[in-house]
Amino acid sequence: MLKQLSNPFLSFRLPIILSGLFVAQNQSFNSFAHLSPNPFFLQFVFITFFLGMLLYGPAMLFTKKTRLAYFLAASSFVALLFISQYLYFSFFGGFMQASALSYINQASAVKSTIFTLITPFVVIFLLQFLIIFAWSEVEKRGKVKKVTLLKNEKIQLAFYLFVIGLLSYSFVLFGDGNGWKKITNLPQTIQEMNSFVYSPNEKIARTGIFNYYAGDTIGYLFRKTTLTDEDLALVKTWREEKPKSVKNKYFGSAQGKNLIIVQFESLENVVLFQKINGQEITPNLNKLAKEGLYFDHYYTQVGPGNTADAEFVTLNSLYPLPNTVAFIDFAHNKYNALPSLLKEDGYHTYSLHSDVPTFWNRSNIYPALGYETIFSKSSFSIPDNSGFENLSDGDFFVQSLEKMENFESPFMATLITLSSHTPFFIPKKSQTLVFPENDLYTETQKNYLQSIHYSDDALGQFIAGLKKNGKYDNSLIAIYGDHGALTGIGNVMGSSTSTVFPELRSSVEGSVPLIILGSSLPAKTYDSYGSHLDFYPTIANLLGISPSSILFGQDLLGNTHRVTIRNSYSRSIMVILEEKIAYKNFTDGGIFETGECLQMPTQKTIPLSNCEKIYGEELNATNASDLIIKGNLVPDLSFIK
User: Fold this and answer.
1) How does pLDDT run across 307-335, given as a tens digit for each residue?
2) Domain coordinates in residue numbering, the chain
3) Which of 43, 511, 567, 598 could lock 498 by a disulfide, CB 3.0 to 4.6 Å apart?
C-alpha cells in the first residue's frame, strides 16, 4: 500500500519545485511594487505555494507526451500575468484589473513606451521555463525516473489537489475571521462605511498578485451587465425628459481661470460657525464662506465608496452605485468627467493626494476621468518631526503649493485632504482646541473636532499661499466636504441649518459645506438644496463651458433645485428635497407607500399622492444612472436621438 501511494507523491517533485519558484516570484513582485513588509508572510507563503500546486500539479494527470505541453502552457500563463502586471504597475503605478483587458487593443498606441519599461528584472518571471527544460533533459538522460501513473493513482492525485485547493482557499476566505469581507471589498454595515477604505495592497501582500487578479476576475464576470431593451428604453426616456440646461447670469464669469478643488475629508456642515469654549472650530472656512458663494444645504452623495464615491459623483454628476464602488468595479469605463471636459478646453489636469496611487483604485480610474498628472504618496515627503503617521494637511498644502508653481495655466488641480480622516488622530502639539470641563463630547467627537480645527488652519495657510503667489485672483476655488464623519457630532452640536431632517445628522449622507471663491463672484449664501451631483454643471457654467448632456445634477446657480438621496446599500430612495415639497422614507424598504410627503419648509404632512410624480421621476433617474455606469453607456448613447 505504501509503495502504491509513493508514486503520486513522487510525481509532485517538479510541481513542488515550480511552486517554490512561484512563491519567490510573487514575493519578488511584492518587493518591486514596494508593498510594506508583510506581517502575514507565513500565510502568504502557504497560500501562494498551494496556488502554485494547483497551477502546475494537474500536469501529472496527463500522459508523458502531453505533460510537457501542459507545463509549458501553465508556465506561459504565469509569465504572461506576472509580466503584464509588472508593465502595468510600471506605467500606471497600480495593479491591472480584469476590466482593463477590454482595452487591450489600445496597447499598440503605447508599445514604444512598453518596450522602455522592460528591464532585466522580468527574467525572474521566466525561470520556470529553464527549470522545466532542465528537468526534461535530466529525465531523458535517466537521472530522474519518469513517473507513469495508473488510473487509480491519477484519481488519488486529483483528490490531493482538491484537498490542497480546499484547505488553502478556506484559509484565504475564513482564516482570519473576515477574509471573505476583505476579498469582496465591501464593508458589512453602514457604521463601518466611514472607516472602510479600499486598497489592493494588503490583499496582494497577504495572498499574492495572482489571487488578487483571480478575485477581481470573478467579480468582473459576475458584475458584467448586459442591458435589456427595457433598460435602454428607460435611459432613453430619462434623456428625453431631462430638462435642458439654461445659461444664467453667472455663465462664463470665471472663463479661462484655473480651477482649484479641495475635497475636505469628513467635513460636516454642522461645525461651521460653531464655537468651543469661545474658539471658532473652523475660523478659516467661516471667513471663506462669507467671502464667496456658500451653499449651506449641500448634501453628500456616497455609497460604500465614501471618499471615492464623493470624487466619482462630483466629477461625473452620476449617482453613486449602491452596494458597490464605481472606482473599483467600473474603473475602465469611458467617462465624460469634469477633468476630461476641461482638458478638451485646453486645461492641464492634475490630481494631488498623499495616499499610494492604488488607494481606492485611483491609479486605474484617474486616466479614465481625464487626469493627466497624478501626484501621490511618493511625490511628497513627511518631515521627521511632524508627529503625524501620514502626511499632515499642513505639509500637504505647503508641498502642493510648491508643485503648483510649475503648473501651466489654465489648469485644474484637485487636492484631497487626509488629516481629518477617521480615526481622527492629531498629535498633541497640533491639538489647539480647548474643551471645557464636563463637556458632553465623547473622546471620538473631541478627536474629530481637533482634526477639523487643525485641517481648517492648514487650509487657511493654503489660501494665504495662493494669494501670495498670485494664483488666487486667477483661479476659481471650490471647497467641499466629501461625507459625514459618523461621530454623532451633529446631534451634540444642537440645532443647525445644516440638514433638513434630523435622521441625516448622524448619517454619512448628511449635509456638507460647499464654498466657491472667485474674484468675479459675490459674497452670498444659498439656502437652496444641492448635492455633489450639482458640482459639475455649476463649475462648467462658471467657466463658460457647455458640459456633457449626461449629467444628473443641476446648476446650483439656476432656478431648479432638487436633491435625491438613496440608501448606501440598497436602491431605496430615502429623501427627495425641493423648495416646496419633500419625500422622506427611512424605513429602507424601498416601498413608496411607506414614506411621507411633506409640505416645505413647514414639514407639514400632506397626502402621499402629492409626491408620486417626483418619486417616479427620481426613481427613473437613479435607475438610469446605474444603467449608464454598469452598461458603460457614456461614450455611446447614439441610440438616443
Assistant:
1) 889 999 999 999 998 877 888 888 888 99
2) 2-223, 251-557
3) 511
Cβ(74)–Cβ(56) below 8 Å: yes
Residue type, 114: I
- Distance between CA atoms of residues 159 and 491, nearest Å: 59
- Whether cis (ω within 30° of 0) applies to the bond prior to 537 is no
Least confident range from 31-40, 41-50, 592-601: namely: 31-40
Q: Which of 339, 458, 454 is nearest to 401 (CA)?
A: 458
* pTM of the predicted protein model: 0.77
- What's the pLDDT at 152? 62
What topology is assigned to 251-557 in CATH? Alkaline Phosphatase, subunit A (3.40.720)
DSSP string, 220-258: HHHH-----HHHHHHHHHHHHHSPPP---TTTTTTTT-E
Contact between 545 and 345 under an 8 Å Cβ cutoff? The reply is: yes
Supply the DSSP string of 409-420, one letter for each residue: SSEEEEEE--TT
* Range 58-72 burial, b when 16+ CB lie within 10 A, else e: bbbbeeeeebbebbb
Short-list 320, 349, 276, CA closest to 571:
320
Strand partners, 374: 351
pLDDT given at position 99: 63
pLDDT digits (tens, 9 = 90+) for 482-513: 988 888 888 888 655 556 787 776 666 788 99
**CB neighbours of residue 349 within 10 Å:** 24
Determine if residue 588 is left, alpha or beta; phi over 0 gives left, psi from -120 to 50 gives alpha, anything else beta. Answer: left
Question: In the prediction, which pLDDT does 186 show?
Answer: 43
DSSP 262: E
